[in-house]
Amino acid sequence: MVCEVCYGIIWVYKTIVSCLRQEAGDENLDIPLISQTIRKVLNSIHYPEIFYSGNLPKSLQVGGTLEGGRADSFIAEAQNYLSDLRVRVTRDIDGYLHDMLKVLKQINIADEVFKNYKKEIEKLENDINNKELILERYRETLKQLENINE
């Protein structure tokens, strides 16, 4: 189960990065930032822990040699247990995948990825505005100095 989750995470990462590369090109992407954002989103998801140990019925927890009817009965019970376990595991995995899909649909990965870019753009715009103010003050100071020299 853990391996399947890891493969799923890798698949999500590769899919998102390849789409972004296709649309924006490598030179316009900050891959470490995107990786960090994707990891943050995926780490925010609750992954249920599914345990099946300790669920073995007493009738299957026997030791020694089984012969005749006891062996046939044991085999039949083991097959029933495996069949029930298969159904339970399938149901648990389906529920897990359904819940995971619901959570992923609620997360806007694009907003998460571009949130940092938006912050950077706002910072740059603020820096540009500050530079323009400084340049304007500098021009005013130059005018005043020129007026003093006249």
Concise synopsis of the structure shown:
The chain is mainly alpha-helical. It has 4 helices and no strands.
What would you note in describing this structure?
By secondary structure, this protein is mostly helical. Helices cover about 75% and strands about 0% of the residues. The chain contains four helices and no strands. Helix 1 packs antiparallel against helix 2. The longest helix has about 40 residues, at about 110-150. The termini are far apart.
Give the oligomeric state: single chain
The major sheet is characterized as:
none
Estimate what percentage of residues fall within beta strands: under 5%
From the alpha carbons, calculate the radius of gyration and give it in angstroms: 31 Å
Q: Number of helix segments? A: 4
In round numbers, the mean pLDDT is 81
Q: Which structural class fits the helix and strand makeup? A: mainly alpha
| Low-pLDDT segments, ≥5 res | none
Count of strand segments: 0
Question: Which overall shape is indicated by the principal axes computed on the Cα atoms?
Answer: rod-shaped
Helix content: over 70%
Distance between the terminal alpha carbons, to the nearest Å?
A: 83 Å
Q: What is the ordering of alpha helices and beta strands?
A: HHHH
Features:
150 residues, 4 helices, mainly alpha
